[in-house]
Structures are given as C-alpha cells and as structure tokens.
Amino acid sequence: MIKQDDLTLVRSLPMFARVTPAQLDSLTRHGSLQRYPRGTLLFQEGERADFLMVLLEGGVELFARDQAGTEAVVETLFPVDSFILAAALTGAPYLMSARTLLPSRVLLLDAATFRATVAADPDLSAPVMAELAQYFRRLVRQIKDLKLRTGVQRLGCYVLGMAGPADEVQLPFDKRTLASRLGMTAENLSRAFSTLRDHGLLVQGSRLLILDRDKLTLFSRPDPLIDAQEGPLSLTGE
Description:
This protein is 43% helix and 22% strand. The protein is of the alpha+beta class. This is Transcriptional regulator.
C-alpha cells in the first residue's frame, strides 16, 4: 500500500497534478514502492520497459556504455522526477541504463497500465505530451552545452547553476559522475577545476566556493537559453 504522503509527492509532478483519485489509485494499484541502496542497477539499456519510474527520494544516474565498457552519464536525477517516460509509453527498449547514486525510494508504475490510462484520458495525455516536450528541450540544452562550450566553461556554468544566488556548492555526487555528466574525463575535470581557480572558484574536495562571481561569470559565459531552469510547460502556451 502506497502512503498518502508518497501520493502527494507523485502529484507534485505536473504530469500527475490533474489526475483524479480514481486514476491515481488505478496507476499505483499495479505499481510498487521500492527502496534501493546506493549503486543499485535499476535496469540496463536494451531491456524492455515494464515500468515508468518515479524517484521519490535519493538520486539516480542515467548512463550508457559502449562495447569496450566505457560509461558516459547522460543525466542525473533528484526528487521528485519521473524517468524513462518515452520507453514506458512505447514499450521500446531502454536507450540508457539507470543506477542509484544514493540510497533511493523509487515508485514503479506498471507501463501497460500507464499506457492504457494515457490513451483513454485526455486529462492525462496532454500533460504527458508536455512532459515529453520538456524533456526534449532539456536534451537540446544539453547538446548546445556540449557543442558550444569548452569543458572548462561547461564546468563553470554548472557550478553557477548549482549555486544559484549562494556562494557555496556541495557536490551531490562524486567527481567521476560529474566528469561523465559534463562529457569530460576525470583528468580533464581536474585540470578544469585548476583553471577555474584563476577565475574565482575555490575547490575544497566536494565543497566549491565562489570567491569572485563576476570573474567566474565573465569566463564561463552562462546563457539563459542553455542554463535557465524552465518551469512546467503547457500545450496551450500559457
């Protein structure tokens, strides 16, 4: 039985904000809430999607691996967020693998039930379309970040985005994950941190201190069309 507090977390996602209690009950009745320790492999690329997953607590990395075993982190997720929506909607194979970064609680919603509910109810299908559109826009931003910036600039913009108005950032995961997320090797990440020391950033392990925001901003050149956090989208454009 899924507790009311967890259902409230699910409803905090725009995709589920307008579903009726009966619809939410139908979706969760065929689902399960699981706890996973850090480092748990949730699924592997190439497998069929049996569930839509909702991260309620912890952290998850989505990654891909080539035939030589080299991994690249595609995205890191923190609560509350859903993931692998496109695969759950289509029943297509996963294009990425997923692994917990932290001890996590994940709600598994049966993909077949989810597809049937979306197909039958426009009140759910419209926000699902908006969620897919938002994810597409997020990927475009990531591609622009990789194509238009140097690795050092990507790191600088990432730190500025994480910090917001604060002058201190605590990395939520290890530097290996950060390097892969930014499309860099661990060695290049270390060199990038060294470079940013000359541009207003002090590194103390996983703690990052912005000593000169103007200098770091001038060097990194953040762009709102890449770095700004976009709110929930609406198909009406409102």
